[in-house]
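I am writing to request your help with a piece of structural work I have in hand. I am sending you one protein, given as its amino acid sequence and as whole-number tokens for its backbone shapes. Kindly check, if you would, that the fold set down in the tokens agrees with what the sequence suggests. You will find the record immediately after this paragraph:
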Amino acid sequence: MTTRRILFDLLAASTGGQLTRTRAFLKRFRQYDPDSEFCILQERNALGAMVERSDLQVHNIDPPPGPRFLFRFGWQNLVLPGIVKRGQFDTYLSFSHFLPWTLPDNVTSVIGVANLAPFSDEAMKSEAGLYGRLRLHLLNRTILSSASRADHVIALSQTCRDVLEARGIAPGKISVISNGVEMPGPMHDGEAAAELRSRFGIPREFILYVSHFYPYKNFERLIEAFARLPQALRDRFPLVLVGEPHDRHYFNTVLSAIQSNNIAVRVIVVPGLDTASLGVLYRCASLFAYPSLVENSPNILLEAMAHGTPVIAGSHQPMPEFGGDAIAYFDALSVASIANSMATALSDDDWRERARKMGPARAGRYTWDRFTRDVVSLYRTGHLPVHAASSGPSA
């Protein structure tokens, strides 16, 4: 049998969910694919030491100063095909949405669609500037073009599959393979929790939201909703926001919203945390609020559930697809609805206790082992295993 030669294009994986998904896959894939030859393309050593392995070849690309997407588009269309031909690769794999136009015809292509913001009216409306709206429009066209030309398309949710089908992508080439989540082991948070509380001034009870700062993450409505809570609830449960300010302009907008709502003394902004510290914060939180306007496979939602945090989230898909009856829902476009949902959850100790038990059981359906096994089966055979029907884990 001829050994499969796979080019794994990770040039778009630089932060957030894309790196999480890639690391989880690379950690496990040899359990299901012991013999394929793998060559990884990455930018600026994005994956670090984890790809320093004898079973992997790595091409590290250092783009020049300037817009990353312009360099990537040119490099992938002009340079990458030559690498494919010289290396005699037979499979192109990417968890991002881009498929080079110049890829040789005899190469099987498997791409993932990770971003649904370009297909969301709410995400488009949340962009205040022309550049943001133009970027979403271009991503929309690029994703649909790549998906229409690819041999196989990985959708991270049934919601994603529905979006692609509605826009003309052939159903037969779309496979739903949802993200997984790392379930925590035995936890001893005493000292770590005390250190975090001391470092950031976090009290014993609080509302938590974790997300990088982008407009479609809907921070402003959450802040306004928090400002509408009864004074007694705001005093007892401050709002803690954790995330990297990748969109600096929007981050400043969020800070301004906190000031204009006169709640600065009850809102704590934490500029990102490592995985272990974030896990501690999840477990300490009284409530996790998730108002994001658009997601594909919501990693953060699954993480909060996995750690037993009571969760309320927007009622639009795919949040109910993943949360089921383990969480409560609100209208993410309505400040009043968010505020009412927070007040109800914070006032119902019995519900929060039930949610702490139901969340891990629900999140446990989504495993990185299953994700990895399904991806390997897709590029090796063109089909998912029998256990993974096209709709993915039951919702």
Observations:
- Residues 130-149 form the longest helix (20 residues).
- The radius of gyration is 21 Å.
- Residues 5-180+367-381 form a domain with the Rossmann fold fold (CATH 3.40.50.2000).
